[in-house]
Sequence to fold (61 residues):
Amino acid sequence: MSTIKACKICRLITDEDKCPRCGEKTSREWQGYLIMVNHSRSEIAKKVGIDANGKYALKVR
Ligand SMILES: [Zn+2]
Fold:
């Protein structure tokens, strides 16, 4: 069984213990789910500071 985790810094969702993007530890304590497919045109991406496409958590503890 794989546990889905999220990065504490960039909030990228992954099943790795370390974020594949920034190397920060990931956490199982996260909430919300956001799939970014066109970050350059997204107002949400600007608001939450996402600068690449992918799956993100909205809150990570
Ligand atoms: Zn990260």
In short: DSSP finds one helix and seven strands in the chain. Residues 43-48 form the longest helix (6 residues).
